[in-house]
């Protein structure tokens, strides 16, 4: 049975997404060509600075528009969710007459909801390393794909009034760091996918639970509109078991995002002359959101993501500052060497657990 109508999700997202900025055709072509070129330039800088080595050739980033980003992300959701839904089996999803109604009507409703969320995000995301891709024509699963959303990058650099080439390279440095994390660490992609699937399987997806979730989501929306500070759709759905898994998801995402921010800013002064101006304006832009953006970010847990950038970057900076990049890179050895959420907030605890025992053993 289908719990999410994927076609409805794509069609809704593409219909609702706002058009990008007005750009002359020649300027648009120049932006696409330059982003491809700068993604390759950035990959070299990231490799040299981090000391990490990709296990496969990278090639330039894939440049997409907003509808292209929506289609790619629906594909990604399918890759993660469909095995989970098969594992749940029809008996968990369809245990009552209400369950039949949920499957018939709910799949379209859920598709509309997913499409609406993606239409909002498609206007915000600058770039992304897509971890979860459908199998290619030969049946093999690609390890991932780096995409840059050209209209959003152009729109942001215009709004911030910064040097276009510098800003594009700065964005590429962050996104290429994500590509490096996953192409140099072969186990990381499967680990993240397992965490996501574990999180989803930890919830009962019968009709009653679905109604409870919708009620919780409605309360979260109402609370956010009233100005509540801590509601988002992620926390609205958490059982104690889910919270424990969510802490592990948050820890690995904080590491990945913080590492990306740390590398982009550390490499920046050497290769991006206006990096200080870009960072200052980018930070100010994050802080001065309009009310709708603030509510949407809160609901979608994006405020949580902003904290992940800050805490993760502080963790990386503290560890590299104390023990150096080579010792920091032990973080990528195995799932056991990843920091816990507590260690993200207490870098010395991670150093004491991972780096110091290894040094003594040697």
TrEMBL record:
Organism: Nocardiopsis aegyptia
Any one Pfam family match given in the protein's UniProt record, by short name: Zincin_2
Family annotation (PANTHER family): HYDROLASE (PTHR39420:SF1), PTHR39420
Protein name: Coenzyme F420 biosynthesis associated uncharacterized protein
InterPro entries according to UniProt: CHP03883_F420-assoc, Zinicin_2, Zinicin_2_N
């Amino acid at each position: 049975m289908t719990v999410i109508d994927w076609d409805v999700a794509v069609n809704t997202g593409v219909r609702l997404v706002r058009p990008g900025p007005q750009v002359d055709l020649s300027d648009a072509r120049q932006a696409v060509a330059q982003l491809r070129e700068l993604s390759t330039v950035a990959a070299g800088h990231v490799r040299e600075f981090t000391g990490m080595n990709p296990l496969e050739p990278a090639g330039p980033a894939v440049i997409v528009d907003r509808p292209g980003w929506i289609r790619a992300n629906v594909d990604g959701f399918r890759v993660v969710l469909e095995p989970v839904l098969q594992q749940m089996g029809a008996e968990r999803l369809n245990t009552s007459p209400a369950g039949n109604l949920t499957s018939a009507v709910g799949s379209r409703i859920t598709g509309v909801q997913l499409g609406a969320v993606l239409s909002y995000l498609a206007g915000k995301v600058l770039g992304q390393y897509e971890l979860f891709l459908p199998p290619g024509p030969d049946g093999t699963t690609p390890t991932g794909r780096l995409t840059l959303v050209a209209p959003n990058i152009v729109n942001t650099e215009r709004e911030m009034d910064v040097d276009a080439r510098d800003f594009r390279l700065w964005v590429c440095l962050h996104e290429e760091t994500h590509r490096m994390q996953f192409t140099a660490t072969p186990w990381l992609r499967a680990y993240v996918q397992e965490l996501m699937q574990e999180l989803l399987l930890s919830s009962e997806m019968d009709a009653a639970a679905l109604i409870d979730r919708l009620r919780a989501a409605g309360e979260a929306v109402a609370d956010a509109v009233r100005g509540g500070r801590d509601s988002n759709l992620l926390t609205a759905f958490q059982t104690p078991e889910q919270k424990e898994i969510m802490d592990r998801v948050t820890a690995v995402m904080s590491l990945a995002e913080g590492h990306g921010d740390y590398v982009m800013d550390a490499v920046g002064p050497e290769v991006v002359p206006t990096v200080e101006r870009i960072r200052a304006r980018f930070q100010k832009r994050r802080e001065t959101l309009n009310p709708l953006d603030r509510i949407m970010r809160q609901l979608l847990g994006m405020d949580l993501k902003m904290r992940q950038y800050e805490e993760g970057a502080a963790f990386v900076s503290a560890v590299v500052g104390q023990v150096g990049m080579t010792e920091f890179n032990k973080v990528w050895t195995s799932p056991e060497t990843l920091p816990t959420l507590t260690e993200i907030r207490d870098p010395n605890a991670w150093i004491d657990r991972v780096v110091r025992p290894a040094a003594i053993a040697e």
